[in-house]
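Q: I have 82 residues here and want to know how they pack in 3D. Can you give me a structure?
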Amino acid sequence: MEYVRYIGNFISFFSGLIIIWGVIVSAFQFIKNEFSKNSDNEKAMKRGYIRASLASYILLGLEVLIAADIIDTIAHPELNEI
């Protein structure tokens, strides 16, 4: 059952990578948007898209983290965790 713990740790690490990647992508999109020559309305619309994109990365990362926690709980069930 020790290998299940390693799988859970890998999935937890992967969830962090998903969130970090989303932040990096969104930061580049934001900077590119703010220095573009678009109108203020177009920039505001693009910011909404960037915000939704970042939120989707965060949600995906959290869902993967929940899966890792479930795997860890299955590998080492304790009364406090259940």
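Q: Anything worth noting?
A: The first helix runs from residue 2 to 34. The CA atoms of residues 42 and 82 lie 49 Å apart.
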